[in-house]
Structure formats: C-alpha cells, structure tokens
Specification:
The complex is a heterodimer of chains A (366) and B (384). By secondary structure, chain A is of the alpha+beta class. Chain A has a domain of 144 residues: Up-down Bundle (Butyryl-CoA Dehydrogenase, subunit A, domain 3), CATH 1.20.140. Chain A has twelve helices and seven strands. Chain A has a five-stranded mixed sheet with strand order 1-3-4-5-2, with helices on one face. Chain A has a two-stranded antiparallel ribbon with strand order 6-7. In chain A, a hairpin with a 2-residue loop joins strand 6 and strand 7. Chain A is globular, with a radius of gyration of 20 Å. Chain B has 384 residues and is an alpha+beta fold. Chain B folds into three domains: 80 residues, Butyryl-Coa Dehydrogenase, subunit A, domain 1; 109 residues, Butyryl-CoA Dehydrogenase, subunit A, domain 2; 127 residues, Butyryl-CoA Dehydrogenase, subunit A, domain 3, CATH 1.20.140. Helix content of chain B is 46%, strand content 14%. In chain B, strands 1-4-5-8 form a four-stranded mixed sheet. A four-stranded antiparallel sheet of chain B has the order 2-3-7-6, with no helix packed on it. Chain B starts with 7 loop residues before the first helix and ends in a 13-residue tail after the last helix. Classes of the chains: A alpha+beta (366), B alpha+beta (384). Chains A and B meet through helix 8, strand 7, helix 9, helix 10 and helix 12 of A and helix 7, helix 8, helix 9 and helix 11 of B. Chain A: Keywords: FAD, Flavoprotein, Oxidoreductase.
Chain lengths: 366, 384
C-alpha cells in the first residue's frame, strides 16, 4: 500500500518551482491582464520545454503520455506561482477532448507549446484571444440546449444558466435540457464574441457562439480532468496564500511585537493549514482514480473540487484579513491570488453543482 | 504506484477480520460508564482477545498479530463498519501500552500488558488536575520518596474510566524544587489501594464517564514507576502524541458514521441537495479526507517517517468532523433529535472532542508555532 507522490513526481514539482521562482511570473501576470501576452507566452514556452504542455498528449503525438497524478502535481505549482493563461483548457482538457476527433491534428502542436486552445465550459472561453482554436461544449456546461446553436445567454451578467449534468434529474428537466444518460456533450467550434471582465484580471473571458460540430469528442473524462486541474490549481494558490501570510505576520509588527505572536492570528492561520492539508489527499485521490478509471472517479473529482475550493477560499479570506489594508490593494501582489481563487471557486462547476453530483452518487450507491 | 492498492495478504487479513466480526460482533452495548455496561464491555474484550483481535498491532507474544500499520488501519475500518462496540480498554491499549513497550521494564511488560488485552485490567487515565487542564506542566499532586517506593498525595480529576477501572496512570511531582516540566514522574497505581478515593462525576450524557481521584498517602512501590524518576514529562508527551494522532481516532470510525449519515438522509426520504444535503455531503467529504489523509500518514510512517506536530492537525480535523457529522444527523432527525438514542449519544460524546487530548486552542497554537513556525512570543497560552 502506498498513497502519495512518487520521488519522480516530487522532482518534477521541484523543477517547476525552480523555473517559476526564477521567472518573473507576477510581471507576466500583470502584462497578461493588460493584454500584453508576450511575457506569459515566453513562460508558456519554457514550461513546454519541461513537458507541462504535453503531459496528457500521447507519446506517439510527441507528448509525455503522463498520468492525471502528474497533471495534478503540475497544476498545483501553476496555481502556487499564479501562472496566467488557458492552462486548464489547453493542457488538461484539450488532449482528452480532441483525441479521436477530426481536430486531433492540433495535439502535437499543443504538446510542443506552439498552440493554445480554449474551451468554453460555462458560457465563456478563457483567453480566446491567444487560443488558436476555441471550442464550446453544450451539455453539463449550461451553454444552451443541445440542438440550439443560438447565442449563449448573455447580457447583464445575471442569467448564468445551470449546469445541467451536475444537478439532479428533476432539476435538469425544469431547466429545459435533455435528461438522457451520462454526460455526452456535443463539441463545437466556437465563434468568439465580446470580451467580458472577470474578477481575476488575468482571466480574459470571451462570449462564444457555438458553431460547427466536431464529431467524436468525449467530454466526460475531459471535463473531469479540467476539474481536477482546477482543484490542484486552487490548492496550490491556497498554499501560496498561506506561505505569504505566514511570512508577512512574522515581520509585520504592531504594539511592538510581530503580529504572528498574537493568538488570534495564529489560530486563523492554523485553520488554513488544516483545511489545505486535508484537501491535498482528496486532490491526489481524484487524480489516482481518474488514472485507474475507478467507478467513483467522478465523485472523487467533485470532492476534490469542493474541498480545494473551500480551503483556498479560506486561505484567501484569511490572507486578506492578516494583511489588512495592504492586502486590499491591487498594487500588492497578494491580490493576484485572492482574485484568482475567487474566480476558480466558481469555474469548472460551482461548489453547489459538485456537492449535488456527490450527493446523487452517494444516494444512488445505497 | 501512488494508489490505494492492497496486497493479497492485506486483503486476506481484511476478509478474515470482516468474517470474524460478522460472526462475533455483539453490536451496541450499554454505556461502558455504567456497572452493567462495563461488565458487558469487559466480556467483549475477552471475546476479542479469544479471536486475537484485541491488539492486532502488538507482538504475538503479548496476544497480538504483529500486524503492520496498514493492517491495523484496515482492521479499524472493518471494526467500525461492522458497528462493533467502543473499547473499554482504549486507555490501556492506546495510551499506556505504547509507553510500557517503549519505557517499561520487562517485569512491567509481564505484569500489565497481557491483562489489558482481554479486559482483565481496565485502566483509568489520571492526567488532569483541578487548575491544570491542557497545562500538564503545572501539575501539583506529589510523590514523596519512602522506603522501597513513594507516597502519593493530592488530587486528579476528569479521570476517564476511573469509576469502573482497576488501575490508573498519571504524573506526580516527585521533585518540588525542579522547574515545571522537570521533576515529574510517571506512576502506575491501584485504584483499590489504601488511601485512594474515587468520586464519580456524571458527564453531559448522565453517565459517570470520569471521576475525581483523591490520594492520601498512597504507597506505590518502585516497580510502578514507569520510565525514569523525573522523566514523567517526556513519557507523557509521547502518549499525548499517540492520543492526538493515529491511535485513538482511526478513520474507520468517521467513515462508518458518514455512511450511516447518508443512510439516514435516504431514510428520511431526502435525495436532493438542500442545506441539509450540503451538510451531509460536507460530512462525507470530511470523513473521506480523513481516510485518505490517514493512508498518506501510514505511507509516510511505513517509509520511515514520523508524526510530530502534525498530530495536532489531525486532532483538529477529527474533532471538528465528529461534531459536524453528529450535528448534521440531529438536524436530519428534526424534533426527534432531542430524544435519547444512538445519534444523540454519539453527539454528546463528540462534544468532548474539541476539549480532551489537549483543547483545540492548544492544538492551534501547536500548529502555528511548530508547523507554521510562527513566533512564540511572551504571552501565556502558547504551546510549551
């Protein structure tokens, strides 16, 4: 029995840390927010050289054919360092989504880092302006009903549609979406529309209109891989928020003492540590179950997303609290992680949608 | 591999445990903190021992099976999934025995270990004193040197199992001149000895789960000093680590409770996500996280690692998890939640989790200071 990362995975994580610590990721993020992609794309290329972009691409297409566990290792570090770009879409989702389709020709260039891809999972596509291709999925993602190729619900930000496959059957019916069977999303090319502003300025979101269908895609595993990557990224971001908070409370003094001496501050940060430490094995287990195609894999992915999201959110709220007003500014780099966590908590299925999927699975399993 | 796969030997062990439990498990017994319940629990310990299931991780020479850590956790999973009774021998097996194995003399091993595996000797924990809760270093009960041994004086309190136990273990100040941690010695004593008076205290659930113990010139021979004279603190700290970490709260307990909670949710005719459903899911996620975290710890320990202050992280999680699991169950039961029953019993017990084994405030200080390495500072209330 062995439950944990292998020495190779630890080494991979450290290699990513070395690269990203030396790179000026913060500047790349800020440039990305302002629409200047060049430093971020340079970073993309350097990570491609370490194999990150080809992790899930099969070896015969110049990828690494690595496991979901390796994917989680990488995305934890991407989250820790706050790397901008459509990583989840290009690296976690696209390989599984496009394999076996007429669009699989792009996989080699995805692996080498030459091509970026975006996938609209919840109405909008991330970084479609740098993606070579943008796709839209219409089931389980709340775009539109399967046979309607009309524009997604847009307008005053309010009408976020439900995510049909993540809610229980009755709800799906009411939402006016097909209720048949397991997720069988229809994959389409997307026509990119107007840009929208995310709470996280590095996330450049675009409205999309579903277009021509791409035959043969299998969205189920692809979406679970995206959700897993998002969970790992959240966990990594949470670890960073905790590290930065711990460093800050050791040097920030009030009443003549470092505020890290105050029990109220200690207890807040201890709770963050506890939450992150217990989210970690859920993320790892979800990756293992996707790797072994365990029957409970989807449920485990949802559990990872809920726990990593809750822990990272707690980390962000606590980081803001212990930093005080400086944490509430954009000039201070902490904001990059605070805002990213808020965005990722709702991305790739909201906590409510994932809890519903878990409950459905638990009740059915009786 | 990085997965949760078990060897054939481990799977065989699991099935053997499952079969034996299915055939022998008496189910829920009366509270062990009543005379009737204590007798029934001692009987259950005898049955467990007869199948060699009472101390699976111990050496075979002392009634165990030499089981690995992995096998121990497997056994605990099966034990709780079977709904088998709580263990009246817990104090002895989990808190005292590791110390006897680690610090005891050969004579002490012979005298005490086997008798605690079959319910013959039930042990009371006697650490707390009035005025000294989590702050064990401030203990005041004394041990005074006399011919061939020591005289114990003073008072212990919140001594779990003491009303129906045979013997106790605890720390006494053997050198009043020494500073706080130094000068404490670990003693084993007979609860029926001359000069010992036990006054039961009813817990929130109405049963005398703990007691005050008064010592009036109680003689203890040198044979019952555990570890060295003056080394009591060091010895006690290793038991505190056991209690907070793996040994007392195995994941099986919470996984089984989470399973029952989902079952209750279904029985109540609920199946979709409302606020109660969310709480059920979160309790299930919490138990699942605890299970997986434990397997991570087992992997770490079997690879030669150890569990230090991380035990405090563990304790914070299971104590909060236990409480929220049972609060959620009571919420599902609605108005019936106030009626006596298994969920209410377990809820009342879960209320003690954040208090005993070092309060959760103390645990948070330990996590902050030893894991996050935040400054200790001069204020009171820091981890020692």
């Amino acid at each position: 029995m062995r439950f944990g990362r292998t020495p190779e995975q630890h080494a991979f994580s450290e290699a990513l840390d070395d690269l990203l610590t030396a790179a000026d990721v913060v500047s790349a993020s800020r440039a990305w927010s302002a629409g200047d992609h060049s430093p971020g794309l340079k970073l993309w290329q350097r990570l491609a050289e370490l194999g990150v972009t080809g992790l899930l691409v099969p070896e015969d297409q110049d990828g690494l054919g690595a496991s979901p566990v390796d994917l989680a290792v990488a995305f934890e570090r991407l989250g820790y360092h706050g790397v901008p770009g459509p990583w989840i879409e290009s690296v976690a989702v696209a390989p599984a989504l496009l394999a076996g389709t007429s669009d699989s020709d792009i996989l080699q260039r995805l692996a080498s880092g030459e091509a970026l891809v975006s996938v609209a999972h919840a109405s909008r596509a991330l970084d479609a302006d740098v993606a070579e291709r943008t796709y839209a999925l219409n089931d389980r993602v709340g775009l539109t009903a399967p046979d309607s190729a009309g524009p997604p619900p847009s307008g005053s930000g309010g009408s976020t549609s439900a995510s049909p496959a993540l809610v229980e059957p009755g709800e799906r019916q009411r939402a006016g979406v097909e209720t048949n069977t397991a997720p069988s999303a229809i994959l389409r090319h997307a026509v990119v529309g107007a840009q929208r502003r995310s709470v996280d300025p590095t996330r450049r979101l675009f409205d999309v209109t579903p277009g021509e269908e791409v035959a043969g895609g299998d969205a189920g595993p692809a979406l679970d891989l995206g959700t897993l990557a998002c969970s790992a990224m959240l966990h990594g971001a949470g670890l960073r928020l905790l590290d930065d908070s711990v460093a800050y409370v050791k040097q920030r003094t009030q009443f003549g003492r470092p505020i890290g001496e105050f029990q109220a501050v200690k207890h807040l940060l201890a709770d963050v540590r506890v939450a992150l430490d217990f989210a970690a094995p859920l993320v790892h287990n979800a990756a293992v179950e996707l790797e072994t195609e365990a029957p409970t894999a989807a449920r485990s992915v949802s559990a990872a997303k809920v726990a990593a999201g809750d822990a990272a959110y707690l980390a962000s709220r606590t980081a803001l609290q212990v930093h005080g007003a400086i944490g509430y500014t954009r000039e201070f780099d902490l904001s990059l992680w605070i805002l990213k966590v808020r965005a990722l908590v709702g991305a790739w299925g909201t906590p409510t949608e994932h809890r519903a999927r878990i409950l459905e699975s638990l009740v059915e399993a009786r | 591999m990085s997965t949760l796969e078990f060897t054939e030997r481990e799977e065989t062990f699991r099935l053997e445990a499952r079969d034996w439990l299915a055939a022998n498990n008496p189910g829920r017994l009366p509270s062990m903190d009543t005379a009737e319940g204590a007798a029934a629990h001692r009987e259950w310990e005898r049955t467990l021992a007869s199948g060699r299931w009472s101390v699976v991780a111990w050496p075979e020479a002392y009634g165990g099976r030499d089981a690995s850590l992995t096998e121990w956790v497997i056994f605990e999973e099966e034990y709780y999934l079977a709904g088998a009774p709580t263990r009246i021998s817990q104090n002895g097996i989990s808190l005292l025995a590791p110390i006897i194995f680690g610090h005891g003399t050969e004579a002490q091993k012979e005298r005490y270990l086997r008798d605690m595996t079959d319910g013959t000797l039930v042990w009371a924990q006697a650490w707390s004193e009035p005025e000294a809760g989590s702050d064990l270093a401030s203990l005041r009960a004394t041990a005074t040197r006399v011919d061939g041994g020591w005289r114990l004086n003073g008072q212990k309190t919140w001594s779990s199992r003491a009303p129906f136990a045979d013997r106790g273990f605890g720390l006494f100040r053997s050198d009043p001149a020494a500073e706080r941690h130094r000068g404490l010695t670990y003693f084993l004593f007979d609860l029926s000895a001359d000069g010992v008076a036990v006054r039961p205290i009813d817990q929130l659930d109405g049963t005398p789960g703990f007691a005050e113990i008064f010592f009036d010139d109680v003689f203890v021979s040198d044979d019952d000093v555990l570890g060295g004279v003056g080394d009591g603190w060091k010895v006690a700290m290793s038991t505190a680590g056991n209690e907070r970490g793996l040994s007392l709260r195995s994941p099986g307990r919470f996984c089984a409770a989470a399973e029952r909670l989902v079952e209750l949710y279904r029985e109540e005719g609920l199946d979709k996500l409302d606020h109660r459903g969310s709480k059920v899911v979160d309790a299930w996620i919490g138990a699942e996280a605890y299970r997986l975290y434990t397997w991570g710890t087992v992997t770490h320990v079997e690879a030669g690692g150890s569990v230090g202050a991380e035990g405090s992280i563990n304790k914070l999680w299971w104590s909060d998890l236990d409480l929220s699991l049972h609060e959620t169950a009571l919420d599902l039961l609605g108005a019936d939640a106030e009626l006596e029953g298994p969920w209410l019993d377990d809820y009342l017990f879960s209320l003690s989790g954040p208090i005993y084994a070092g309060t959760n405030q103390i645990q948070r200080n330990i996590v902050a200071e030893r894991v996050l390495e935040l400054p200790r500072g001069s204020q009171k209330g820091g981890a020692q």
